[in-house]
Sequence to fold (133 residues):
Amino acid sequence: MALHVQEMIVPGLAAPVGPYAHATRCGELAFVSGLLALDEDGALVGRGDAAAQATYIFESLARILQACGSDLLHVAKLSFYLIDLNDRFALTEVRRQVFGAHRPASTLVQVAGLIGDGTLLEVEAIAVVQSEK
Fold:
């Protein structure tokens, strides 16, 4: 069976600002692009508040995964990019609330900066989706 890559643009989320999709789906995997805490109009949510930004990002992630035919409990891998490593404590608490006992593989990297004034973190994900019929 030949696999194809399906681009996913999810209505109600900030439009991608470059030549990329919110996610791509290929076979039984969804690859979610890096998410920032930007609302539908591209305005920052939770300025100065890592927990608020993480909460908004995970809400956006859930919407994207639903559009791909998946959900948060089928996330296999998360990658986190933080400007300040001290924000990992707030991120970890929100992550526990969102994922409960589900523990995807994870990477956390400190970066010098992110796109957008005031963005504190960026999250990308890989998830399992239903088989294509």
